[in-house]
Specification:
By secondary structure, this protein is an all-alpha fold. The chain has 2 domains: 60 residues, no CATH class; 240 residues, Orthogonal Bundle (MetI-like fold). Helices cover 76% and strands 1% of the residues. The protein contains 15 helices and 2 strands. A two-stranded antiparallel sheet has the order 1-2.
Length: 327
């Protein structure tokens, strides 16, 4: 019986791939998988080479003490992580990254939403306004931060020269913790609010106008239409904007590098800037890898928490979800 089954199985397999007809039938049965492999295969390979391998290597670096490129790495288990949470330079940089990221994301979304509401109106030349708001997004960080430095320089800065002419003492914009963080936040908003506004605008224009007409027939005022029609309609865009905005805001470092250089005394350092210093200036590859893993864990936990909260909110708002089948 076993031999008969094997023979019949081999015969069936040979009939499946026998000639062009067999391959055509196989292609028709697995068409979606084949097309997906052709389209996604090169991209997945590129991701593995450019992002996947460096990410895995960064995870491994966190378990080694590697002071110089030419030196041999030493396996130290969790010593780098213990040092991270004992050294104020590291955990304060992490805390600074979190609260600056939350502040920038919140203000970015609020200001971007207000700008999107204005751009959604029927205004003359609104295409020009949209372009003007988006220009900072595509400009060079190095060039624009240098323009900021021209304004903030204590000796020849535009703002301090104006203050001197008014008879007041110049302000140490880049050498004060409070003012340094203030200008980092201001630059981050100036750089990112245009992109956030276009995201909100896409969400506003995706809301079906029929819903507004139906709400108006029901006697809803502007606030009720905004609360019951606009906000639910832009909720998917809001989710994307919050996640991507926070990930980008937590990873800022160009602003710190070119405006304050982490000063004074490292009190405006954020974690990504600290990782950059450890990896490329101090050649402390182990701490750079461990810090990267901690930052990844924080962003991952927040993302999972937000998606869980968003999914549970959807289940509450949709009575068809989460309903158990009756036995």
């Amino acid at each position: 019986m076993a031999n008969e089954w094997d023979v019949s199985g081999n015969a069936a397999a040979s009939r499946t791939f026998d000639g062009p007809t067999g391959w055509r039938k196989f292609y028709n049965n697995h068409r979606d998988v084949i097309i997906a492999a052709i389209i996604l295969g090169p991209m997945l390979f590129w991701w593995m080479v450019v992002s996947g391998f460096p990410t895995a290597f960064g995870f491994l670096l966190g378990f080694f003490k590697w002071g110089e490129i030419t030196a041999s790495p030493k396996f130290v288990w969790f010593d780098n992580y213990i040092h991270f949470f004992r050294d104020p330079q590291y955990y304060m940089a992490l805390w600074r990254s979190i609260w600056i990221g939350l502040l920038v994301t919140g203000l970015n979304m609020l200001i971007g939403f207000l700008i999107a509401l204005l751009m959604n109106l029927s205004l003359f030349g609104k295409a020009i306004y949209r372009t003007m708001w988006y220009v900072p997004v595509v400009t060079s960080v190095v060039a624009t931060t240098q323009i900021f430095n021209i304004f903030l320089d204590i000796n020849n800065g535009v703002i301090d020269n104006l203050i001197k002419r008014l008879g007041y003492e110049p302000i140490l914009w880049q050498y004060s913790v409070g003012w340094g963080v203030f200008w980092i936040v201001v630059y981050s908003l100036w750089k990112g609010v245009g992109g956030m506004a276009l995201l909100w605008l896409a969400g506003l224009q995706a809301v079906d106008p029929i819903l507004y007409e139906a709400a108006e027939i029901d006697g809803a005022n502007r606030l009720q239409k905004f609360w019951n029609v606009t906000l639910p309609g832009i909720k998917p865009i809001a989710t994307y904007a919050i996640i991507t905005g926070l990930i980008g805001a937590v990873q800022i470092y160009e602003q710190v590098m070119f405006i304050t250089l982490g000063g004074p005394y490292g009190q405006t350092e954020v974690l990504v800037f600290r990782i950059l210093r450890d990896g490329f200036f101090d050649f402390n590859m182990g701490m750079a890898g461990a810090s990267s893993v901690v930052l990844f864990a924080v962003v991952f936990i927040f993302t999972v928490f937000y998606f869980r909260m968003f999914a549970s909110d959807n289940e509450k708002s949709d009575p068809r979800r989460g309903r158990r089948k009756r036995q």
